[in-house]
Amino acid sequence: MWLSSMHPCIEIYLVLSTCVEDLTWNVRLEIALERIIWKGLISMVSLMWETKQDVSCTE
What we know:
Layout: H1 2-58
């Protein structure tokens, strides 16, 4: 009787723990993606700025 009453609690705990793990992984992925996107944007902007400077110099 005790095990059968505990079983759903254990299942819920397992589901919750896996959900938490998934959430932390998702957050890590989001942070990594944000960093990659920011780095990409910054490098693109700096490249555009450099080419803009070059164009203005040649004129």
